[in-house]
User: Which sequence fits this backbone?
C-alpha cells in the first residue's frame, strides 16, 4: 500500500509539472544587484531570485526575457512577455497602463551622487547637469521638480549615466539608493552621496497586463507566503546586506 501511495504521489507531481502554466518574465538585465547577466549570460540578481521563488511556489514554468528599459512596458502590453520583474516602482502614472502585484521590496529612498569635492546647494539646485535613466521615477521627479535652471540628461541605462559622471560630463546623478550603494562603496571615495534622500513611489512590484487577474492572484498568493516565512527577507539580505528584515511577522 505504501508503494502504491508513493507511486500515486509521484504521478501527481509529474502531472502537475506537465500542466504548469508557462510564464515569460521580462527584466532589464542591466541594473545590478537587482537584475543583470551573470558570467554565463543568464539573468541573475534579486529580481530573478524573487521571480523564480514565486514561480516555484505558484507551480508556474517561468522563463526569462531581457529587454531594454525604455521599451519594457510597451513590450509587456504587446504580449512579448507576461510580467515585468525589474525593480519597477509602483506609481499612479504606470497604473494607468499596467497592473502591479503587491510590492516585493518596500519603498526605498532615491539618492543623489556627485564626484568627490563637488559642492551643490540641493535646497536650491541651479546650473547643474543632472543624469537620470529615462522612463524611471527619478526621471519623472527630475522633470517635475528640477528642470528649472538645470539640464536634465536622460540615459538608456544608469551605467551610462555613472560613466558620464566619472568623465565629468555630469554634475549629479539621481538613482535608487540600493543601486548606488555598492557603486559608492567601490569607488574608494571618488563618488559620494550628497543632498537629501528623495522618497518616490510605493515600492517595487511585478508589472502585469491589465486584466490578467489570474496571474496576479497566483503571484500575490505566492508572495504573501514567501514574505510570511521569511524567504523574501532572506533574499533581500543576500543582495542588499544590512537591509531589512521588512516582512516576516
Assistant:
Amino acid at each position: 500500500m505504501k508503494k502504491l501511495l508513493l507511486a500515486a504521489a509521484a504521478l501527481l507531481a509529474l502531472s502537475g509539472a506537465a500542466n504548469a502554466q508557462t510564464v515569460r518574465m521580462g527584466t532589464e538585465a542591466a541594473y545590478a544587484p537587482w537584475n543583470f547577466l551573470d558570467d554565463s549570460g543568464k539573468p541573475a540578481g534579486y529580481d530573478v531570485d524573487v521571480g523564480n521563488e514565486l514561480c516555484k511556489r505558484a507551480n508556474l514554468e517561468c522563463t526569462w526575457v531581457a529587454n531594454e528599459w525604455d521599451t519594457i512596458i510597451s513590450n509587456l502590453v504587446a504580449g512579448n512577455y507576461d510580467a515585468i520583474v525589474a525593480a519597477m516602482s509602483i506609481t499612479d502614472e504606470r497604473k494607468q497602463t499596467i497592473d502591479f502585484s503587491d510590492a516585493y521590496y518596500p519603498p526605498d529612498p532615491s539618492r543623489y551622487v556627485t564626484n568627490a569635492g563637488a559642492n551643490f546647494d540641493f535646497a536650491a539646485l541651479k546650473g547643474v547637469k543632472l543624469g537620470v535613466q529615462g522612463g524611471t521615477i527619478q526621471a519623472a521627479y527630475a522633470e517635475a521638480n528640477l528642470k528649472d535652471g538645470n539640464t536634465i540628461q536622460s540615459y538608456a541605462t544608469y551605467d551610462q549615466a555613472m560613466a558620464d559622471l566619472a568623465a565629468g560630463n555630469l554634475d549629479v546623478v539621481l538613482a535608487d539608493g540600493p543601486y548606488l550603494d555598492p557603486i559608492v562603496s567601490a569607488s574608494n571615495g571618488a563618488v559620494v552621496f550628497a543632498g537629501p534622500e528623495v522618497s518616490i513611489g510605493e515600492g517595487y512590484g511585478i508589472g502585469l497586463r491589465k486584466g490578467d487577474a489570474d496571474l496576479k492572484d497566483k503571484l500575490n498568493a505566492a508572495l504573501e507566503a514567501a514574505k510570511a516565512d521569511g524567504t523574501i527577507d532572506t533574499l533581500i539580505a543576500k543582495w542588499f546586506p544590512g537591509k531589512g528584515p521588512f516582512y516576516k511577522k
Summary: Residues 2-18 form the longest helix (17 residues).
